[in-house]
Amino acid sequence: MSTDRFFSSFEAGEPAPLHGDVGGGPARSPTAKAGVGFTGTRALRYDRPGHVRLFDVDVPAGEHTELSYVVFPENGLSVALDAELDDGSRLPGTLDPKALYPDQWNLVRRPVPAGRTVRAIVLDAPDATGWLDDVRIADRPPRRQDPVDWVRTTRGTHSSPEFSRGNTFPATAVPHGFNFWTPVTDASSTRWLYEYHRRNGAANRPRLAGFALSHQPSPWMGDRHTFHVAPEGDLAFGHEHETDRPYHYGVRFDDGTTADLAPADHAALFRFTFPGTGAVRFSCGRGGVRLDPKRGVVTGYTSVRSRLSAGARRMFVYGTFDRPARRRGKTLAFDAATVDLRIATSLISLKQARRNLDAEIPAGTSFEQVRDRARQEWQDLLARVELDGATEDQLTTFYSGLYRMFLYPNSGHEETPSGRRHASPVVRRWWPSTRRRTGAKVVDGPMSVNNGFWDTYRTTWPAYALLTPGRCGELIEGFVQQYREGGWIARWSSPGYADLMTGTSSDVAFADAYLKGVRGFDVHAAYEAALKNATVAPPNRAVGRKGLRESIFLGYTPLTTHEGLSWALEGYINDFGLANLAEALGTPDEAKYFRQRALHYVHHFDERTGFFQGRHRDGRWRWAPHEYDPTLWGHDYTETDGWNMAFSVPHDGNGLANLLGGRAALESKLDTFFATPETGRNPGSYRGIIHEMTEARDVRLGQYGHSNQPSHHIPWMYAHAGAAAKGQGKVREVLTRCYLGSEIGQGYPGDEDNGEMSAWYVFAALGLYPLAVGSPAYVLGAPLFRRAVVHLESGNRLVITASSGGPYIQSLRVDGEPHEESWIAHDVLAAGATLEFTLGEQPSGWGTPPPSLTEGGDPPRPLTDLTRRDHTALFDDTSRTQITFDTATPVIEYKVDGPPRPVEIYTLTSGTRGAPSAWVLEGSADGHRWTELDRRAGETFPWARQTRPFALAEPAAWPRYRLRVTASAGRRMSLAQWELLAGER
C-alpha cells in the first residue's frame, strides 16, 4: 500500500508542469488505448527537451519514499525523471534505457534517499520524444507476504495481437484445474478475453463485460465452452480496485457494485454486492440458458469453440443462488444487496455438473471457505520454493511464474458414481449432444488437456519433473490416455488433436521425465506413442510428424514439408530423448538407431553458409550461398529466422561446435548472433510483419528473440563453446530487464505459452537450465537471489546460495566440494544438495563444457543408407509406396552401388498387409556363398508402414545382401522400404 506525497496525472485540478505540452496521449500503441494518458485522458508530451525542471515541490523523503512515473517513448529511449534534492544532488543510480519498450507505457520506480527533501522533479530527454503520465512521489513500505500472495494474475494482459507482453488472461483456478474463471473486457471474443488497457472506456477507465467460464490455452488457439455471468450496472473500475490472485479475483466497480470469485476444480463461487438491490445476467454465444427464479437455479450448456478447439463437444452448467429471484429474460433480479452463486460444469452431463457442484461446493459453503481452500492449494505448491534477497518485483515475477506453470496442463476428467471418467476429446463419435448429456464417448480414466508441447517441452515439463514429480507423472498419464483412445498424443492439445506448430515434443518431454525418476505413468505406453510418432507417417495433418514418409530415409526433411527445417531439427531433439528412453527400457537396437537419427542435423547444415537450411528432395539447397539471408523470417523456419535456428542442437553442442570448426568458432558465431540487430522488417515468407518480429526487435539483444521459444536455449550454448561466462551475462540481462512491468499488466517479452516463458525465468533465476532435454542433467548459471531453498517432493532440500549479486560465476561448491563442471546431474539435485556459488562482476574461466552426444573434435558422421541403382518401391526413400510379394516368404537381394561400407543397422518398413515376422539377413561377396549376419523371429510391426530398426551384432561390409523372410503375418507379404545403414570406411 502506498501513500502519495505528490501526484500528477496532468488532469484538470492536478499540479501542472512547468514545461511541456499536455495533450491527449499517444496517437497509437499496439497494446494501449490511443489518444489518452495511461490513466485519465491527458498526458505530458516531451519533445527533445534536454534537461528541464518539470515540477517544483517540497517533499521530505522517508525510509521508503520513491519517485515513480510511466513513460511512453516514441523516438529514443534516453529519457528519465530525476529528483533534485535539498543538497543539490540527484537520485542515486542510473537507468538502463534498454529496460524501456518503445511505443508502450513503461513503469519506472526510483528510490529517494531517506532524510533528503525533494525540491524539484526534473526531466532528462536530450534526444527523445514521447509521453509522461502518473508522476508520483510516494511512500511504499516493504511487504511481507506468503508466496501465493505475490502472484498477479493480470501479468501479461497488457497485450494484443500486435504485441505480446504475455498474451495471458487473469485465470482464477486451482492448480491444473478443470475450469478457468476470468473477468472479460470483450465478451464477444474467444481470443483476447481481458485487455489491461486497450479496451478502456471513453474516460480511459477499464471496463468489464462480465465474467467468463474459460478453457483457453492461448489466445492464438482460442477459447472454448465460454459462458458469461455479469452483475447489472456500470462495470467501469480502476486496476487499483482489483484483487488478482489465483484463488480470488475481486473488483469494486465505480458504481459501488463489487464482484468476487473463488474457484474449485469443476466449480466456483461468485459473490455480488450491490449498492441497493441487484441483478445478474447470463449469456452464451452458442448454447442455451434456462433460469428457475423460484429456486434460484441456472442451467445450460455451451458449445462455443474456436477453430482450433479440436475435439471439443458440449459443456454443461449448473448453478444455484442462495436465494430466490425474479426473472427478466436471461437475468435474475434479487431483493437483496448481496447474493452468492455456486456454479459448476461437466463435459459429461447436466446431472454430472450438479454432482460436481455438490461435491466441491455443497450448499452452505461460504465464499471464504472456497477461497481459502484454493489459496491453500496454491500455497502448498508455491511455498516449495523459498527466496531470500529478492526484490518485491522479483518475488512477483518468480511466484507469478510458478502460478503460470501450474495453471497448465488441465484436467479433463470428473469423479462420477462409476469412478473417474471423461468425455473423450480424441475419439471421433457422431452421436448428437442434447441439452442434458454429451454425444462424445465417455471413457474411464484420467485425461490431460491444454498443452502446446513445442513450447512446453523446453522448460515447463523439466520444471514439473524437478519440482512436482508425482503430479508430473499424473499429468503424463492423462496424455498417454489420449494415445490409448485416439492412437496419438496431441502435438497441441486444445483439447484434442489441433494441427499447429512443429514437432511431436511430448516424446522428449516424457522421456526426460522418466529419466529424471518420474513415475506414476505407463512408461511403456508413453514409449509406444513416441515410437509411433517417430516411425509411422501420420494419417492426417493433425497428428504425428510431418514429412516423415521421406525424412526417415533421406536423413533430412525436404521442402515439400512446410517449414521442413524446423520439423527436422525438432525431430532430432525428440529422437535424442527417444534414444535415451529406449536405452533405459532395454531396447538397444532402437536406442542405437535413434541416437544416429539425432545426429541427422548435419544433413541440414550448409557448410557454404554456416547455417541450417532447407533442401529439395534431390538434395539441392533452397538458397545458393549468395542468396541466403539468415535474417529472413519464415520459409524453412517456424516463427523465426536462420540466425535463431543456427544453434538448435541443444542435445549435441559439441557436435555443432565441430561442424562450425571448433569451440572457438561456436563462441564467435554466438558473439555475432548477439551483436547482429534484429530489425523486425524482414518478413520473408510471412509477407507481412508478425508480432514475433516486432517483439524480437524490441528485446534488443541482437538476433536473440527471447520473445519466442525457439531461442530460449541459445545463451546457454556458450557452455559448449567453453565460454560459459558470456552466457551468464546474457541470461542475467534477460532476467533483469525482459520480465518487467508486473504492476501494469506486462511482465513478459512475448507469448507466455502454458508456463514456458515463466519456467525459463524460474530455472534461470535458480541458476539451472535443462539445456539437453531428454537427458538427466542441467547447465549451471549464476543464481539471481542470495539464497533459494527448494523443498523437494521427496522431503529433501535443494539449497542454492550466491555470495553476491554479480552475474558471473567465479567458483562453485556442491555439498562442500569444488565443482568445476558447467553442468550438474539431476540425481545430485533430487537427492538434496547445497550449491554455493561465488559470483563476481567480471567474467571468469569457470566451467568445463557439459556432456554431448558427439565426443572429440570431429564433426558428427551418422550412419547413412547404402546406395544402389535400383529405385523400385522398396528403395525409393518413401514409405508412401510398397511392394506386395506373391508369397509370405520372399527372398530379396540388394547389390551395393560402389565400394561396400560397414553396415551397422538395417531397417524394414512394413506395408499394409502381411508384415514379416521372421527372417535372416545374409551377406555375400559373389552372390553364391552367403554368410548369416542377423536372424530374427517372433517380430511384429504394430502399425502399417512402420519403420523398425535392427542392429547387427558386428558391423559387416559386403557387396551383396540378401533378406530371406521365413515367416509373415499373412498369406502374402508387403514391404514399403528396406534400408541398410552404414558408417564410413
TrEMBL record:
Family annotation (SUPFAM superfamilies): Six-hairpin glycosidases (SSF48208)
Molecular function in Gene Ontology: carbohydrate binding; peptide-N4-(N-acetyl-beta-glucosaminyl)asparagine amidase activity
Pfam families: Glyco_hydro_92, Glyco_hydro_92N
Polar residues composition-biased segments: 154-168
GO biological process: carbohydrate metabolic process; glycoprotein catabolic process
Listed NCBIfam families: aman2_put
Protein's name in the database: Glycoside hydrolase family 92 protein
Source organism of this protein record: Amycolatopsis alkalitolerans
